[in-house]
Amino acid sequence: MVENRFGVLARVAGLFSGRGFNIDSLNVAETHDKSVSQITLVTHGDAQIINQIYQHLNRLIDVIEVTDISTGTHVERELLLLKICTDDAQKRAEILQVAEVFRARVIDTKPASLVLEITGDQGKLEAAIEIFNTYGILELARTGKIAMPRGNTK
Amino acid sequence: MELSGAQTLVDCLKREGVEYIFGVNGGAAMPIFDALYGDTEIELIPMRHEQGASHAADGYARATGKVGVVLATSGPGATNLVTGIATAYMDSIPMVAITGQVMTQFIGSDAFQECDVIGVTRPICKHSYLIENSEEVADVVAEAFHIASTGKQGPVIIDIAKDAQIHKSLFQYPETVDLRSYKPQVDGDPTQIAKAAALIKEAKCPILYAGGGVVLANASEELRELTFKTQIPITVTLMGLGAFPETHPLAMEMPGMHGSCCANYAFTGADLVVAIGARFDDRVTGDLDKFAPNAKKIHIDIDPSCIGKNVPVDVPIVGDAKNVLTELNKLVDTADIDPWRGQIQEWKQKYPFEYQQKGNKVMPQYVMEQIYEHYSDAIVVADVGQHQMWAAQYFKFTEPRQWLNSGGLGTMGFSLPAAIGAQLGCPDKTVVNINGDGSYIMTIQELVPAITMKLPLKIFIINNMYLGMVRQWQELFFDKRYSAVDYHDNPDFALLAQAFGATGLRVEYPEDVEPALLKAKGIDDGPVVIDFIVAEEENVFPMVPAGKGLGDVIRGLS
Fold first, then answer.
1. What domains lie within chain A, and their CATH numbers?
2. Contact in structure between B124 and B141 (CB atoms under 8 Å)
3. How would you class B472 by CB atoms within 10 Å of its CB: exposed for 0-12, middle for 13-18, buried for 19 or more?
4. Does the pLDDT of residue B420 top 50, yes or no?
5. Are residues B24 and B137 in the same domain?
6. Which end of chain B is less crowded, N or C, counting CB atoms within 10 A of the terminal residue's CB?
């Protein structure tokens, strides 16, 4: 949770690059409180590194709260948009069948392509990408993970 | 009352008790300089380079404990501050740096003298603000001073667009500052403090290891109480010198690369290290695998990210050193460690800092001994390099804020402008600037404001005609290949001082050292520069080579 202010993302991202920590994925959005933004950031490292990241993030003046969600049970989701080539009718039908398996939604369709929306955890999205790639992915966009602890902690 | 942004800024600075602003004027900051013109409460100190202005504000802050303020224009003015801001950041010095910025409508257009100073300084400041509306000025200034001076202190940057300096708005200064995202933890956890006290009680070979954090927290008294009460030997880092009197029998002098053998052996032999406002810097620890291998560690620090960063810690205590030590002192007693104290005394006596006289040369260490002899009460502002280490070794500091130096960033050129700030902040003290021939010439231009203000600075140059510390490393580790360190082409600093309008003296023989120092003592209507021409290839010992363990200290070249 950070102050919803100009430059905050740069401070967070700069901290990672400046101190040699890696960002695997990053998602930022305003919350129901307009003055607060939520950053969901996926990183990796041993306990000492994670602790350093935690402490350094907390040092940033605009950071309100840092939570390591991975330490408890939590739900995580990621959204994937895929534009797939559908240049013949048979291929198109097959793609729609596979889409069914992934509970994907068709959100745009054109004669030679369609856009699928798929939600899930990382494993599911990776599997979807692998399969749809055999049909020819034209474009891909994914949000990066967002996550939340289970239960009524807040 | 409606005031311009610039006038609001000046009024806010008065509310914060600012006495001096160090600056260099320029286009995008002109309204602020104009608002300061003729002001009777805040004295504007025009420096000759923005870097000098930033170090002067820093020196003022180090000497007084108050927030130092520096003011510069946009673009090059702001980028010239960068070294000074980074210097203050590394040593946690409370500072507010104000920079003018181009008009709001030109921001991002590569306008004349435009630079994204917020972007440039992001990793080297505690926080920063860009002000685009004059209404924001009062809140930002109050927050900036609050952030700079609390928790782990540090520099805060306020970048103000020129139109925000000009536009008028209602002046209202916030009485208090409450930031939901910034609540430094100042009180230590009582359970952790009790654990620390228990470890101290059990230890057979404990040492106290205090750093600059003790000075910054104004906790020297509490540190002394802890030491006197427990009678545990203490080593104080380069940044902490003066927090504990080095003249006391329990003082082991500073540890680390050029620290005392006693302190380094004590780390190696200790079974408990109590770190207070010190950060296990690589220049202190040497090879981490060999650092205090048998010791449990207690670490007291205001900054949680500092604890466990370099060295695993058994009892972490987050809090202000003053508060934590006050509580800890209630729980401790005289430690039953006579054999260990005996061992420390033996090391101390066996391995004092020492040097050999070479011919009829002026030995730099001798100059330090003489400076200490004649200026023991002075505030000493050192630069960076060999002279800094010799000063730290041979001057026995007894009071906090008596020793100022750029320990973290190691900024050459820091000391002369910092001495100006220190002298203004402490007008009743004698301020001695110990400088090197390499570092002095980096900010020599600041002699001008010192002369203009008739500051009685004692500027002592330890002139070995080399970038000495680098030359020492080249001698020891680079086959004496003296690449880019030969400074024999420097001008005659005594004559140069006279050309500037200061008193300039040159000392070439040992017998002239003391008379020159005494002469300098009598000059109080302006700076005096003494150029001590010292033995050229003298090295700083003891030395723990980079990457080696503290036990591998080289005591000297025979």
1. 2-66 (3.30.70.260), 75-149 (3.30.70.1150)
2. no
3. buried
4. yes
5. yes
6. C
pTM metric for this prediction: 0.95
Nearest residue, CB atoms, A64 vs list B180, B303, B309: B180
Coil, strand or helix at B452? helix
Residue that has been written with the tokens 């630079």 in this structure: B115
> What pLDDT is recorded for position A152?
72
Average pLDDT in chain B: 97
Asked whether residue B556 is domain-assigned, the answer is no
Q: Which residues of B touch A18 (CB under 8 A)?
A: 123
pLDDT tens profile B33-91: 999 999 999 999 999 999 999 999 999 999 999 999 999 999 999 999 999 999 999 99
Query: Residue holding tokens 């001076």?
Result: B149
pLDDT tens digit string along B136-167? 999 999 999 999 999 999 999 999 999 999 99
How far lies B519's CA from each of B131, B431, B451, B477, in Å? 50, 15, 18, 40
Structure tokens at B416: 């002369």
Q: How far apart are CA B498 and CA B496, in angstroms?
A: 5
CA atoms in the 13 A half-sphere facing the CB of B435: 30
| B145 CB neighbour count, 10 Å cutoff | 24
Domain of residue B227, residue span: 190-350
Q: Which residue has the tokens 């420096």?
A: B47
Q: Is the pLDDT of residue B558 over 70?
A: no
CA distance B303 to B452: 41
| CB within 8 Å: A11 and B147 | no
pLDDT digits (tens, 9 = 90+) for B516-527: 999 999 999 999
- Contact flag B181-A62 (C-beta cutoff 8 Å): yes
